[in-house]
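Working notes for the structural subgroup meeting. M.R. asked for a predicted model of this chain before we commit to crystallization trials. I am recording the input and output together here so anyone reviewing the notebook later can reproduce the run.

Input as submitted:
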Amino acid sequence: MTADEFKSADKTPLIIILDNIRSLNNIGSVFRTADCFRVEKIYLCGITATPPHRDIHKTAIGATETVDWEYRESALELVQELQKDTWACYAIEQTVDSIELNSFSTSEKVAIVLGNEVDGVQQEVVDACQGSIEVPQFGTKHSLNISVCTGIVVWDIFQKLRGKA
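Returned structure, recorded in token form:
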């Protein structure tokens, strides 16, 4: 598929919101994952860097040219705006009430918020979301690199939205 064909192709009704992501390589990797699954849009919020940047480009390998993206200062305001536009918004975060990814089901358009590599999704953003989704983990570490986590979550939601889960 060419970049022009990608731009006009039907998209997966999934939005990725990156909230204060520090690593430019992680940002680029998320763009690549979004391209792979034809995600509708990426929002880059807070301190999250924006293209063009050579370190983003290094891992995105051109996906910043295909995936629709936009910068927003406030992830909280964005979540509230998307909810008014009938998007279901979920923080990808470990919380007391989080839903394990394998138990999460949806058939509606979904926006997921992924947070800072150290602090996670801002608490006010978590509170504004419909809920939190967490990737089950069984080892000694209880966190995943954001780009790895994004790949797992996007694949799972993609399958569910396509009716294959």
